[in-house]
Design a protein that fits this description.
Blueprint: E1 14-25, E2 28-40, E3 45-49, H1 56-63, E4 72-81, E5 84-85, H2 91-97, E6 102-105, H3 109-112, H4 119-131, H5 135-148, H6 167-179, E7 185-189, H7 197-214, E8 217-222, H8 225-229, E9 234-239, E10 242-248, H9 249-254, H10 259-266, E11 317-320, E12 323-325, H11 330-334
Parallel strand pairs: 3-8, 3-9, 6-7, 7-8
Antiparallel strand pairs: 1-2, 1-4, 4-5, 9-10, 10-12, 11-12
Length: 336
């Protein structure tokens, strides 16, 4: 059985070491996550950013052991949570971790919620499974959770179905469901992408408030660096399944050292930009992850590339305490 009181092997709540995940397809092997490592402490908010297909979501699904096998396979690595390697747990042991200890909110709540079951039943089911509550206790707690995430007249909405809620309200329901068992870590996988900007802001503020109230650790996955600026303390920038730059929000936004991060930052609109200002666009297309990578994966799109970039994958190096970058020309980028 999963032992949540196990003595930690490190001082970190979560420690990921050399996590590597591939998908075996008819066209070849897709190298989706390529040896990423990082740590998280209690109360941290980590932003994971990058374009679609860079491995952000696959890395989170790997942590949760939700990669479909086949075609996917976690090839190697370690994911230590409270001292135990999640990759070595049995499926039954892992079920005690999912939802109860680490919860995940997905991008589209309409595909995550069962359309033929009431909202109340879907949340109560998790409370019965993980918390051992009877029907009356679970119903009362479900109403409290829906109220916590800002659902009006929560107790009266328990018998409603997902289609009776707006997109923003459905996402609040998903957050309530994720919080139902008081998890230590909440993984939010682009939870605001399908919502309009006003509702996006409300959901972000909701998660910030709940983290402050409940003391959760949050991993927020997004393609939008603008969202991370006001939400996270630390940022991992991913490209082609690699972490290519990581550091504090202040370090990444103040002095990034990777051309890709510079491109992402340059694509953000600024309030003081004059009308008609053209935003920066990174040239080219994201790389094809089929087959073994040779050289820096960003090299075909990079204006700083030199011959070495085409043949050697750069390793992560520390520029200043806590700020790491994988780029052979990082000193040139720094002066840009």
């Amino acid at each position: 059985m999963y032992d949540h009181k196990a003595k930690p092997v490190s001082e970190h709540l979560l420690e990921i070491k050399d996590l590597t995940t591939c998908f075996y397809t008819e066209d070849g092997v897709v190298h989706a996550v390529n040896g990423i490592s990082y740590t998280l402490d209690e109360g941290d908010t980590l932003g994971v950013v990058g374009e679609s297909g860079c491995g952000k979501s696959v890395h989170a699904l790997s942590v949760m052991r939700l990669i479909p096998q086949p075609p996917g396979k976690i090839e190697k690595g370690e994911v230590f949570f409270k001292g135990q390697d999640l990759l070595k747990l049995s499926e039954d042991e892992m079920r005690h971790v999912r939802g109860a200890e680490i919860a995940m909110v997905f991008q589209d709540p309409m595909t995550s919620l069962n359309p033929v079951l009431t909202i109340g039943f879907q949340i109560m089911e998790a409370l019965s499974l993980h918390q051992g509550m009877d029907d009356a206790q679970a119903r009362e707690r479900t109403a409290e959770l829906l109220d916590l995430v800002g659902i009006p007249e929560a107790a009266q909405r328990l018998d409603d179905y997902p289609h009776q809620f707006s997109g923003g309200m459905r996402q609040r329901v998903m957050i309530a469901m994720a919080l139902s068992c008081n998890p230590s870590i909440l993984i939010a996988d682009e939870p605001t992408t399908a919502l309009d900007v006003t509702i996006q802001a409300q959901i972000i503020e909701l998660v910030k408030r709940l983290q402050h109230q409940l003391g959760m650790t949050v991993i927020w996955i997004t393609h939008d660096l603008g969202v991370i600026a006001g939400l996270a303390q630390r940022v991992n920038v991913m490209y082609a399944g690699h972490i290519i730059e990581a550091g504090s929000v202040k370090a990444i936004y103040g002095q990034s050292h990777h051309p890709y991060t510079l491109g992402l930052l340059g694509s953000l609109p600024h309030p003081d930009d004059p009308p008609g200002t053209t935003l920066f666009s990174i040239p080219g297309e994201p790389p094809d992850l089929l087959g073994e990578q040779v050289g820096c994966p960003f090299a075909p799109r990079c204006t700083y590339k030199v011959e070495r970039c085409l043949h050697e994958i750069p390793s992560l190096e520390e520029m200043e305490p806590g700020h790491i970058v994988a780029c052979w020309e990082k000193d040139k980028v720094r002066k840009a």
